Amino acid sequence: MNNKIVFSGIQPSGNLHIGNYIGAVRQWVKGQNDGLNIFCVVDMHAITVPQDPKTLAEKTREISAIILAAGIDPDKSLLFVQSHNPDHANLGWVLNCYLSMGQLNRMIQYKEKSDGKDFVSVGLFDYPALMAADILLYGTTEVPVGEDQKQHVELTRDAAQKFNSKYGQTFVMPAPVIPKEGGRVMSLVDPLKKMSKSDPNPNGAIGLLEDPKSARKKIMSAVTDSGSEVKYDWENKPGISNLLEILSQFSDVSVTELEKKFAGQNYGQFKTAVADEVEKFLIGFQKKYAEISGSGKLDNILKAGVQKAYQISHPKLLEAYKKVGFLGQ
Ligand code: TYM
User: Fold this and answer.
1) Assessment of whether the complete model's pTM goes beyond 0.90
2) Could you tell me which CATH class the domain 5-182+296-324 is placed in?
3) What fold is seen in the domain 202-290?
4) 147 CA distance to ligand 1 centroid (A)?
5) Tens of pLDDT along 255-308?
6) Distance between CA atoms of 140 and 89, rounded to whole angstroms?
7) DSSP-derived secondary structure for 5-56
8) Which residues line ligand 1 (CB under 6 A)?
């Protein structure tokens, strides 16, 4: 499909982990050879929870370089920072007015992120309206994300539908694209919980910039299940199933093939193979990351990215403004 338009985003908060890579960034890289592909570091979403300004700025650069190191090619894809394009906040405001409190209240991520907090910002509640703007500004057809973002993409469709039925066809209906395997990489210490940037237990996640030897240790001590057979069975063997998906993604060998390969081998042998593959990946990845962050090219890539993005987003913003009755200039 050559007329596909892909948009996806990632927050520059916390440390990017192999779950973000497998669930999202790896899919972006695989799909960038056709259609229009747009990737955004969503710093405006990051401030919906408290951030240290210096760290946020550093993380925005770090994550941009990580995306490039993962294989996003600026000659094929656009990469830019959300706050560099004011159209996102502007359309976000308009869409605010077409989504209800009830709809936003049903968002699982809002419930999880606000749970037990003394201070919950309006921005955190309203986060999905800005995400809908990100997506709808570009005529996006596909949104490659991990499983946890599916509900937000569905809300984006609801917002588009509401606007289109009131004002006539304006926004393209986007579809979430979630990998069948790897859409929800689980914690290494609790395979019933998703691997998360904000997990207080550092052994649950493997950071993309983490020392490969420490990553190896985390895999070797990952929680596994009772029994001894290496089998893909989420119900009874979530720990092993999670490691099988991780190995499959990094080795490009299907889970079924891996099950055959490890038949008769014990958990220790299997974990060693996963640890080898993850360590090898991290060494190669971090080498590329060092090259890119030291190259001095990042600022220009982000600048060129936002210039092209704005050329696409701005006419769409003006179209929406006109439809709601804003006086054009
Ligand atoms: P964020 O920054 O939390 O995560 C970035 C991407 O990583 C995926 N992901 C996972 N995939 C598999 N297993 C996991 N354990 C795992 N954890 C995270 C997420 O699903 C996501 O695809 N709201 C978004 C950012 C965003 C966005 C957008 C995405 C803003 N605007 C527009 C798509 C389109 C977020 O917080 O992702």
Assistant:
1) yes
2) alpha beta
3) Tyrosyl-Transfer RNA Synthetase (1.10.240)
4) 8
5) 999 999 999 999 999 999 999 999 999 999 999 999 999 999 999 999 999 999
6) 17
7) EEEEEE--SS--BHHHIIIIIHHHHHHTTSSEEEEEE-HHHHTTS---HHHH
8) 7-11, 19-20, 22-24, 42, 45, 131, 134-135, 143, 145-146, 148-149, 152, 183-185, 194-195
